[in-house]
Amino acid sequence: MTTPAPAQVPGDTAPPPAAPPGPGAGPAPSVFETLESEVRGYCRGWPTVFDRARGSRLVDEDGRAFLDFFAGAGSLNYGHNNAVLKRALLNHLERDGITHGLDMSTTAKRRFLETFRDLVLRPRGLPYKVMFPGPTGTNAVEAALKLARKVKSRPGIVSFTNAFHGMSLGALAVTGNAAKRAGAGVPLVHTAPMPFDGYHGADASEPFAYFERMLDDPGSGLDRPAAAIVETVQGEGGINVARPEWLRGLADLCERQDMLLIVDDIQMGCGRTGGFFSFEEAGIVPDIVTVSKSISGYGLPMSLCLFREELDIWEPGEHNGTFRGNNPAFVTATAALHTYWADDALEKQTRLRGEQVRAGLLAIAAEHPEAVVAVRGRGLAWGVQMREAGAAGRAARRAFDHGLLVETSGPHSEVVKLLPALTISPADLDEGLRLLACSVREALREPLG
Amino acid sequence: MTTPAPAQVPGDTAPPPAAPPGPGAGPAPSVFETLESEVRGYCRGWPTVFDRARGSRLVDEDGRAFLDFFAGAGSLNYGHNNAVLKRALLNHLERDGITHGLDMSTTAKRRFLETFRDLVLRPRGLPYKVMFPGPTGTNAVEAALKLARKVKSRPGIVSFTNAFHGMSLGALAVTGNAAKRAGAGVPLVHTAPMPFDGYHGADASEPFAYFERMLDDPGSGLDRPAAAIVETVQGEGGINVARPEWLRGLADLCERQDMLLIVDDIQMGCGRTGGFFSFEEAGIVPDIVTVSKSISGYGLPMSLCLFREELDIWEPGEHNGTFRGNNPAFVTATAALHTYWADDALEKQTRLRGEQVRAGLLAIAAEHPEAVVAVRGRGLAWGVQMREAGAAGRAARRAFDHGLLVETSGPHSEVVKLLPALTISPADLDEGLRLLACSVREALREPLG
Amino acid sequence: MTTPAPAQVPGDTAPPPAAPPGPGAGPAPSVFETLESEVRGYCRGWPTVFDRARGSRLVDEDGRAFLDFFAGAGSLNYGHNNAVLKRALLNHLERDGITHGLDMSTTAKRRFLETFRDLVLRPRGLPYKVMFPGPTGTNAVEAALKLARKVKSRPGIVSFTNAFHGMSLGALAVTGNAAKRAGAGVPLVHTAPMPFDGYHGADASEPFAYFERMLDDPGSGLDRPAAAIVETVQGEGGINVARPEWLRGLADLCERQDMLLIVDDIQMGCGRTGGFFSFEEAGIVPDIVTVSKSISGYGLPMSLCLFREELDIWEPGEHNGTFRGNNPAFVTATAALHTYWADDALEKQTRLRGEQVRAGLLAIAAEHPEAVVAVRGRGLAWGVQMREAGAAGRAARRAFDHGLLVETSGPHSEVVKLLPALTISPADLDEGLRLLACSVREALREPLG
Amino acid sequence: MTTPAPAQVPGDTAPPPAAPPGPGAGPAPSVFETLESEVRGYCRGWPTVFDRARGSRLVDEDGRAFLDFFAGAGSLNYGHNNAVLKRALLNHLERDGITHGLDMSTTAKRRFLETFRDLVLRPRGLPYKVMFPGPTGTNAVEAALKLARKVKSRPGIVSFTNAFHGMSLGALAVTGNAAKRAGAGVPLVHTAPMPFDGYHGADASEPFAYFERMLDDPGSGLDRPAAAIVETVQGEGGINVARPEWLRGLADLCERQDMLLIVDDIQMGCGRTGGFFSFEEAGIVPDIVTVSKSISGYGLPMSLCLFREELDIWEPGEHNGTFRGNNPAFVTATAALHTYWADDALEKQTRLRGEQVRAGLLAIAAEHPEAVVAVRGRGLAWGVQMREAGAAGRAARRAFDHGLLVETSGPHSEVVKLLPALTISPADLDEGLRLLACSVREALREPLG
User: Fold this and answer.
1) Between chains, do C98 and D139 touch, taking CB under 8 Å as contact?
2) A233 has which bridge partners?
3) How far apart are the first and last CA of chain D?
4) What is the DSSP letter of B118?
5) Chain D positions in Cβ-Cβ contact with residue A219 (cut-off 8 Å)
């Protein structure tokens, strides 16, 4: 099957010319080591100092360009410093449009709301109110959990194995990662994990039998939850893809059992899996949806909490936050919607690019049948699960050496995770896949540390 | 005492010319009412649609200008769209500097870290590591609480009456406001409130006697906390000002009792009370400090968690967040530090302006001795506490009608709260104080609703 | 197979002669209705006023005798007012032996400890220390959970579906019943239910696959528990019998996963299933065991918490209780051990009687193949699960009318539960089974209410 | 003032003759050391093996008699093995009265309920329903807390500094002792301690000013509690005596603030302070009262939870327990009420004896003005607070050597605590006080360890 690339989608433009070394460049980036907290992470795997970026290319202060297959952990679906969005942002700043707006009404917010309504909600028949809960994903998750608990007057939330929803105390309690949970410093309570689709021991034909039995049985010990929160594709969890029928089953279960269904679409929304929302393909309408990362389109902090109109029982100011009205982000978000979501060109292109990635990864898997356990993905979110946990990390390090940025995920960091910009060109995709194949090959040859 | 205005501090510039009505302007800003959640707050008290801003003036879509005595709840200490910072931001964007950087090392981050070290930490002898915990204040508080609990292996945190620290579950548990606490939907635990300086019943000469007795007494029932978290001036709590000797007493108590002292300087830091940190005046060095709001200087989401080097026991990635590397904010933050914190000119000017505000408020109080309970403040954070709770709200509404933006705070919203930009001109300050006096006068004449 | 009844076990003696009506007897037992709290339960299903009892017979104040198939919910394994134990108790009281002993050393406690060591622990090779945690089952469970959490420094406890462990806050958190949990008035946390043996959806051949996957997976969201607490036969849960291989699997799992195994033998211990401890048959040695109900043998409040010697890290007085030294109970407990546990006669007899019950219940099931779902049991703990939930309750009410005391259990009260005294005569067993058959027959004929 | 000893109160009878050494007596009471858990406490301070007891005398297995000033921590208000109660108990046992009754209606329970109504509740005009929550004090506290939370639909409970309410998880959360709290193994939450009457820093003239300000202030951070739980005299806390006006203030506060008042009268009820309930003197009527310890009168496990009729919203069986129908305890409780509470003779005698104790303790204090900080008490609950913490423990050990049993209490075990039987003779009281004076003298001479 071939699909002509939809011409009207603005793609990545050429990378910027190499920059002259920055004034502070020297042999040792010492201030990061001496002053920044040990909690820093990505800078350890990618040991250079980045300076500029455009499209799918980052350039470090020495002028070396890197092909970006990580896209800000899914926050840069339209590439770095997308030219169309940049123009809109510069216009706004130049004319002294509101920058910081708390939750005042502004022209920029109105344009975003109208555009979101006209291009996203209405065409999909989604009956949502829009809340600006603070500009990060974890803010949106906190707001979603609060609202679900308030609506149902019950504290319990069901999450799923290997879920990731954020690092503030409410969101962390529905996150699976043991090391991150331990960081809470207090026991994380009022939550219960259930098996995600395909989790070991789950019967694929009747995946909710155990969960529903627990809910139906007044002696099970599982207090009736207010809601279940789920990702359609678990990004941090290792690119675990829920089948559409599993998501429908979960939505039906929640309705039968008087629980709200929260879809956390922070990483997989905004077109990452094809459609604007990752749950569209399954044909479900969650009660609450969290959106962040790529919603501003430009990497600016912004998030949304969407919910059915009848759930909008908030008191004014019951949840707030200083930066919930980040107007520059509204401007780029509006521009991104007009540019990429006025029709289905990007959605189709994403699926096409996804096929390209899938083919490339299957070739890698075929080359190493012993070492590669699985290739999984939807849209442009893909993972290559290695049998030996360390192999994925070694491959990512080799990739960096070759000028390709990829990350690992999964409970044992055993999955090489690919989140390229949706606007990446087929040629860049091919180049990245070639570099990845090479990196995996080297990683598997490398003696174990 | 007279002090010449320090010439080198870039002040507010003239407001932008009136904008033509926006394309979507109409009689009813309906999309806010029909699509935005009921949780929206400030837009209710200030019923217009803002379009542009500069310095201390916001302009709505009909071209009406408002004098801003709220400054983004303290996020715009250098005024809206400060021209110096704007130039730095535009440069960064135009040259495709990194926008979204996770916690990768970038040239923009390096410049910020070096500048923060050289202009803020070193001159004050502060021994802090710098953590970027996610770009909002509540992220910083969550990180601070996690770290304190991890360091001390104890879950308890002491907070103070009428504290406000944020809306995610961890921060909300140390926030006093009952309505906001109820929004959590789960009991908020592991925290204990103690009386803030001057709280009813606290003995001013021995303010920590009861608290310390509870800590010393193994039968008190107060489990030993990991830390105390405090604001030096409680903004949301009603501009309650802690005396320097009270803060020193608290710092001494924490040291004696093996507890960490966390100062939440999100609203009162970045020069709001005069010095860069609000605790400098008391001569204390907290173990952990949270900074946000005005740190970027331009209203862009950014926050810091600072802590003594020996507390930096984080594992890499143990706390993270998608937008913790908001590079445009690093750029404006760096420019703001160079512009305003290379010397003590702004600090001196802030104290001077504060005297001007104080005089104006005392005049209002003198005019209404029955109605005004107290005038309180430090630097450019001031509050006028009204005897009758509704009077403050009525005054704020009248002020809006007169073109002045002020807010209320305090447990009963009984305090008119002033947070003008630090860069405001004496003339604008005078105009605002005059409008406020007029608004208070009208509010007190108004029949009770 | 036939087994001669072991002659040396003192059995039930003849019921006492009918009592003259008590002085306060009248038409309406009004003080129960007017003064006792609505929380009262059993008195509602058995609407009479009991006066005396011996062996398996209770006699009400009108002289009517009831055959007891409930035995104080398993607290009267040797029958009511067992003559041998009674003699020992009277002797103790008459000679002014210590009655209330806190946890002082007493001669009665020493005799109990030595006897328990010599007749129970040593013959079974059980390496336990003995703790007197307060005289009720829930006290013992609270102590067991405290100790497990202290030993492992982890708060989490895994319990099983339809478990019952008690009504104080710690024990209630590991109890499954939703109505009882709701009574807590606070969310019950730090616990996670897992499927008991045979629970719907559990793979009988690999019953711990899901549980262990959750434990092995650092991303599962299940924080590593300190312990699992289990009943070998769930009494309140509906006489759910764990297979020996399931219990062995659980014990192995706990060892592999660094969790303690707590067996709550409060209802099923003291010979109820045959051996002194119900877990003996499976060949496991739990880390902690709770014992109560029939340990005194006479229905006097008493409980034990047993644990491996190396777990005995309690500080003196770290758990205490006013009535933990109930010396009259030590006296009857000692007498019961000498009378019934010096050899294996009772154990053999219990299995024999169990066969008799099983045959009787299978006959009832065969008579009503549509109405009876299952007959389950071990030793002298048996249950008849009815398809229609109300049928079990109607059968129990009919039984009362016929002079037989039986109760229901299970999450929907759908199981008729039989816990006759271990000392019951074959003739009484037959009579009871005949009355039960008749009651079930009538209950199934009865029109639905 | 002199009051003739009321002749009709059965007092202590002569101690039983010395017993022959028990069969198991030997040089080392090894089974306690080898088999009983390290958690054992009292046996360490009183290193002998007790065998028999009568009135205020315990006799060890070597025939040595000890004068008991501890009375089972207040469980033996009528002395050991009180002859009148013993006769009633023997009668019940001999005629095979019900021993174990769950919560079935029995003739023994009816007699107790009627007697309690006629001799305790009605004469005092107390509008209470009676609940049997399980036979220990902690069971009663758990039930009280559950009910308060259910009635008010709020989780919070306020307790007081140095409170002791029990060791199960619910009761432990309102207990002050840090070591016992740490034993919980989980954070104890939903509770907040407030200063007890006279606590350091509390203004005696306005003791609830701070507490009520916290309740009235919607920004205080203290979530509105369901109830406050208080002891009128804190026994474990160090014989801290609340003034009647303080108790009245607390009762008024609770009513104004829509909180329930729970008086835990487990140790101080049943006549310990004079009246049957310790709160009678203050003229208050708590919403909920817990009673245990001396309610059976014979040291048998029994407890009550009393509450206003309108609070009786329990569902049947919502709280239960195997031993809540301990019928032998009902029998002795009934006999105790008839013997001691048919008139006010015991109450008067207790006050008289209390004066005797007070005089004796003041003499000790006068002898050691440097060493004794305070003498406190009501009725027959008294404490001598030593300046040096270890002195109280040394005095108790010396007392044991002299044949007197006294215990210590208070957060630092700095208080010698006296709880003699209410039935003790003046001569025995004198003897004990003399031995105590001698012990204190020796303890203060002893070099510090």
Assistant:
1) no
2) A241
3) 44
4) I
5) none
Integer Rg of chain B from CA: 22
pLDDT at residue B3, rounded to an integer: 42
* Residue-wise pLDDT tens digits, B40-61: 999 999 999 999 999 999 999 9
What type of residue is B90? L
Backbone angles phi, psi at B185, to 5 degrees: 80, -5
Please report where in the chains the tokens 């390090």 appear, as a residue: A397
**In degrees rounded to 5, what are phi and psi of residue D357?**
-65, -45
* CB < 8 Å to B191, chain D: 221
State how far Cα A278 lies from the chain centre: 10
Nearest to D178 among B199, B202, B218 (CB): B218
Min Cα separation B80/chain A (Å): 7
- Enumerate the residues of chain D whose CB falls inside 8 A of the CB of residue B190: 187, 189
Residue D26: alpha-carbon gap to chain centroid: 34
Residues A139, B168: C-beta atoms closer than 8 Å: yes
Tokens of B303: 């926050």
Min Cα distance D49 → chain B (Å) is 31
User: Can you say whether the dihedral through the CA atoms of B50, B53, B56, B57 is positive or negative?
Assistant: negative
DSSP state of C134: -
CA A110 to chain CA centroid, nearest Å: 25
Interchain contact B398–A (C-beta under 8 A)? no
Bridge partner list, B289? B263, B306
Q: Is B40 helix (H, G, I), strand (E, B) or coil?
A: coil
Please provide the DSSP assignment of A143-156 as one string.
Answer: HHHHHHHHHHT---
CA distance C433 to C93: 38
Cβ count near D201 (within 10 Å): 18
B138 contacts on A by Cβ (under 8 Å) = 134, 139, 168, 321
At A8, is the pLDDT very low, low, confident or very high (cuts 50, 70, 90)?
Answer: low
Distance from CA of D203 to the nearest CA of B (A): 8
Cα B98 from Cα A60, distance rounded (Å): 10
Report how far apart the first and last C-alpha atoms of chain C are (Å, whole number): 44
Banded pLDDT at B10 (limits 50, 70, 90): confident
Q: Can you give the pLDDT at residue A422?
A: 98
Predicted confidence at residue C203, as pLDDT, reads: 65
**Whole-angstrom Cα distance, residue A180 to residue C224?**
14
For residue A147, name the pLDDT band (cuts at 50, 70, 90). very high
Shortest alpha-carbon distance between residue A139 and chain B (Å): 7
Among candidate residues A386, A387, A405, A396, the one with its CA nearest the CA of residue A439: A396
Close Cβ partners of B127 (under 8 Å, ≥ 6 residues apart): B121, B285, B308, B309
Secondary structure (3-state) at A29: coil
Chain C residues lying within 8 Å of B186, measured CB to CB? 187
Report all structural domains of chain A as residue ranges with CATH numbers, in order of start: 31-82+345-445 (3.90.1150.10), 86-340 (3.40.640.10)
Chain D CA closest to residue C130: D36
Q: Give CA–CA dist D66/D383, Å, rounded.
A: 20
ipTM for the predicted complex comes to: 0.95
DSSP, collapsed to helix, strand or coil, labels residue D318 as coil
Cα D107 from Cα C48, distance rounded (Å): 10
| Local mean pLDDT, 10-residue blocks, chain C (449 residues) | 50 59 53 96 96 98 98 98 98 98 97 98 98 97 98 98 97 97 96 92 77 95 97 98 97 98 98 98 98 98 98 96 97 98 98 98 98 97 96 98 97 97 98 98 81
Q: Which helix (H) or strand (E) holds D50?
A: strand D50-54
State whether residue C14 is helix, strand or coil: coil
Chain B, nearest residue to C185 by Cα: B187
Q: What is the pLDDT of residues B168-208, one digit of tens each?
A: 999 999 999 999 999 999 999 999 999 999 997 556 778 89
- At residue C366's C-alpha, the angle toward residues C361 and C367, to 5°, is 100
